[in-house]
Specification:
It contains five helices and twelve strands. It is α+β, with helices and mostly antiparallel strands. The protein binds biotin.
């Protein structure tokens, strides 16, 4: 079990908290060092997308992990981070969330948080930066939502941050217990099983019904031919959110 001891550095403005923390990690920063910025001028999302980060509109946060767990378990870190954000939004803002594979947090089917986990080489060994962007008061994208929109009240960024730090500490300590993370993630994601989805990954796209996740976090997708594909990267879109499908 690894006990995380987060220490948060605060900045008014940074290009990207992930990029700045990667720089600090390359200079020997310890596990648990975290960065919070009021705005990002070059915020980054998954798949080389931009993450719009205007001042005061979101919680822009990154934390440095130096996991002892074998590298094949590292994909579970993003699942654990999604569980932690879900806990924090519920506890500190009263917002229930769904998780869209791999780690988008949704409120009422619209995105409220994105997570960008990046593995990097540092002189102290391979490390992971987990970057979390929570829409507090404004949507990063028109189709997204925010804590303000979900609750109708001004979000308390400090309360959400405090809840996030303790939830990250809790879930990170369970990293060695793969089955607990997979079970918790599956119970909190309407995408885990029986959802008709399209998955696109660059030029390729597949449709199918979700059939749970693998122990390493890969999504099982049963296509129309009955073949089960393992998806390790890409975007998932719900095709008919209300339909229940069978994956067995
Ligand atoms: C995604 O859904 O595409 C992931 C978005 C991740 C955004 C956060 S904001 C804090 C951290 N710094 C970045 O540049 N990106 C992440």
């Amino acid at each position: 079990m690894t006990l995380l001891k987060p220490k948060v550095l605060r900045f008014e403005s940074l290009p990207s908290t992930n990029t700045e923390l990667a720089r600090m990690a390359s200079e020997g920063a310890p596990e648990g060092l975290a960065i919070l910025a009021d705005e990002q001028t070059s915020g980054r999302g998954r798949l080389q997308r931009a993450w719009l980060s205007p001042k005061g509109a979101g919680l822009y946060f990154s934390i440095l992990l130096r996991p002892q767990a074998p590298v094949d378990q590292w994909p579970l870190i993003t699942l654990a981070a999604a569980l932690a954000v879900g806990d924090a939004l519920q506890e500190a803002a009263g917002v229930p969330t769904d998780i869209k594979w791999p780690n988008d947090l949704l409120s009422g089917e619209r995105k409220i948080c994105g997570i960008l986990a990046e593995a990097i080489d540092t002189p102290g060994g391979r490390a992971v930066i987990v970057g979390i962007g929570i829409n507090l008061a404004q949507n990063a994208f028109p189709e997204a939502t925010s804590v303000f929109e979900a609750t109708g009240t001004r979000p308390d960024r400090e309360a959400i941050l405090a809840a996030l730090l303790s939830a990250l500490t809790r879930w990170y300590s369970l990293l060695g217990e793969r089955e607990k993370i997979v079970a918790a993630w599956s119970s909190r994601s309407s995408y885990a099983t029986g959802k008709l989805v399209q998955v696109s990954n660059g030029d390729e796209a597949w449709q199918g019904t979700t059939c749970g996740i693998e122990p390493d976090g890969a999504l099982r997708l049963k296509t129309a031919t009955g073949e089960v594909r393992l998806v390790r990267a890409g975007d998932v879109y719900s095709l008919r959110a209300t339909d229940e499908h069978r994956c067995a």
